[in-house]
Amino acid sequence: MSTAPTSIAHFRLTAPLGAGGMGEVWRATDTKLNREVAIKLLPAAMAGDAMRMARFAREAQLLAGLNHPNIAAVYGVEERALVMELVEGPTLAERILQGPIPLDELLPIAQQIADGLEFAHEHGVIHRDLKPANIKLSLDDRVKILDFGLAKALSTDSSTDLSDAPTLTTPATLVGTILGTAAYMAPEQAKGKPVDKRADIWAFGAVVWEMATGERLFAGETISETLAAVLKETPDWNRAPAPLRPLLRRCLEKNPKLRLRDIGDTMALVAQSQPDATAPARTRRSPLAAWIVAAVALAVAAVFAWLALARHPAPAASAVAFTVAPPADANFDNGIAALSPDGRRLVFGAAPNQMSQLFLRPLDSVTVSPLAGTQAAGSVDGSGWSSLFWSPDGNSVAYFAHGELMRLDLNGGTPTALAPVPNDVGGSWSPRGVILYCPATTGPIFRISASGGSRRPATVVDVKAGETGDVMPWFLPDGNHFLFMATTTQGSRLKVGSLDSPRVVSLGMADSNAVYDSGSLIFERSGALVAQPFDARTLAFAGQPQTLAGAITTESVTPHAFFGAAHGTLFYQLGSGGPAQLAIFDRSGHQLQTLAAAATFGDLELSPNGQQLADVQPDSGLWIYDLTRNARTLLDPSAKSTAAAWNPANGQIVYIRRNRERFELVERRPDSVSPPTVLYSASIPFVPFSIGRDGRLALLGQAGDNVLVLPLQGAGKPYIWMGSSPAARIHSTGVVRDLQFSPDGRWVVYMSDRQVYLTQFPGPGARYQVSLAGGHQPRWSADGKTIYFLAPQPRLMAVPVRLQANAATLGSPKALFGPLNAYGSGYSYAVSSDGGRIIGLLNSGSAAPITVITHWTSLLRH
Fold first, then answer.
1. How far is it, in rounded angstroms, from Cα 560 to Cα 548?
2. Is the pTM value of this prediction over 0.85?
3. CB neighbours of 765 closer than 8 A, spacing ≥ 6?
4. At what angle do helices 263-272 and 197-213 cross, to 10 degrees?
5. Are 507 and 494 in contact (CB under 8 A)?
6. 451 Cβ neighbours under 8 A, 6+ residues apart
7. Are 818 and 838 in contact (CB under 8 A)?
8. Backbone angles phi, psi at 396, to 5 degrees
9. What tens digit of pLDDT does each residue of 265-317 get?
């Protein structure tokens, strides 16, 4: 250990505690508070790097907010030192040296590790270097995780690669530390790919394995050999205790898309691994009694086996897989597809000539036929997500188009409108002649007769449980009970409702919508399509899930995964699986520059000076892109909204964060570590859309389809400006979103009923339709003379506009270029102040074909 200073600031160093790739650790006394602390002295090479130290200081401030009993606290930063909680006791690595840890001692340790990881993940922090040496067993039997997030804090840049574990780049004298880190790396981390919290779940599995067996799971004499073992070797599961094998298999899945996504799931598996302490004691039986019991058991088993086969007969044929391609010169309209109840016909949406339409494909034929009258079926706002479902008798289909729920009888009828649907999020048709549908992402599911008429709610949103809307219904075989998703700001819950009863059964948190077929629920989990046995009578799961396919196409906001099943036939569409890529284009669509890649993108908002791009994502927080350096930084992991806005008056970014049961509108500088300023707080969700050029007013979208005007200066109170509320100054019957102030603040452009409109502010005044054949995501040019928006498929459009005191003159929409990659949440493009540069997502080409599998149940392990 090198010579250290005797004191740093008001901390007096008293004794060395250890050394590693991230520096030396000393016991120290805080002379101000008179307490013992741990001081980590950073290596001189790191301390001399001003950029790295600045980044380290920002990360350390984030880590200081992790206040949890199983995480060693970070108190602050002084010079080149990190001040931390002093944890007395051995490390987990030292405990493992004594041999395998018994299950009754191992499980409480694993539980506490998982608790600490879950808390950090919920606050947007990933450890990246979890290993036994970074886990302390305190003298009061409490687990403390050390060095949380320091791998990222001390890395050379903001990327997530091998440098995120700095011990990999330390001198050869620390070979033991190097191998220790490499042995716990997830495969994607070892490959230098971007990582998320699933890398911690892998490391958690490796740590649990080592506790249970007393041996490191992956080992080698060199770093290369260790990493090769991580990438290629398959664990011998028989070496691990049987109760832990389900947990270890789920954590140590090499494909991160198939691995557990949330550490909370591992906690449930840990709990399930506990021995049954309430099981009755075994009693001795005579051999004859044992033989009789066995015979009775065999007879009962035979009866139950016969009943099971009678209820769910074995597949008569093996699975056959094939693909369905879209019609010539067309792409699939993702998410618009459904199988007929007999599993023999597929209706899907495709977009020839830039216009969505429905097509019918019998699965025993290669003939694809357009369904007359269904042009513009589905989502015309460019998001590509909508709904299509069959009648139980297979003679009709229902779909959404032109802001209406439509019904088409396949015997030669014409489409008829059943109900207005501003923003559909799923539907289903019961044999009882009832249709369930969702007219918005917030609020309840509605029911209506299949022949039309009045509607009424079929569900009640559980606001007290933090739920905001019920979506994606699917009727179970009895035609009374139905599956649906209850969305919350923290995820979605899968539930079962009933047409005849208010009783609701919760099936737990879920990643996507679910369908029922052949005795199983099929749904997406961690990117993979899985099937889990489900008893439709008791409304309970009856077995463990099994994977059917990986990396299917999903949309996180709804939530909606592109798959379906009926009568033993399954279909799905595979996603690209790779990160999305931002790029800068000119007005003709020529690519000028490639920007940073990311797994997902949220709302893209360009700063007033054109040098920074804000990207707010509900899963990971608020990101800032420095366009001059092509660098991406996480500014605030607590941001929970899917929209943000820049304040043109001061150049600060405005967004939403969750504070307990409140939603806060906050403002902060994009290049500062100073705390954000709270501008407004409410108990129900809302999103910021636009702020006037003078910074005085903000337009907010509120749950319940209202638009608020919020004064940002003085003591003014928000008021409802547009919406269905009687208090609204401007009334609208449809969902309104994507609102933007004109540069002079006297006009507002917005999307409603899948079209772009222009109206005066504050109004009321005339309303002008900007788009002609559907559009969304409207934006203004800096001079107020052009309105941009995305048309279907989606193409970037430009409309010249001349604004007068009380009137506006609009020109014809002109297509600039496309298709662009677009999504349904927030803005997927931004325009520079001079209108010469457009920032958007690179087009990945046409969507993958639809995969169809007949007799899919033969794929299951029995």
1. 17
2. no
3. 759, 806
4. 30
5. yes
6. 433
7. no
8. -145, 160
9. 765 665 554 444 333 333 333 333 333 333 333 333 333 333 343 444 444 46
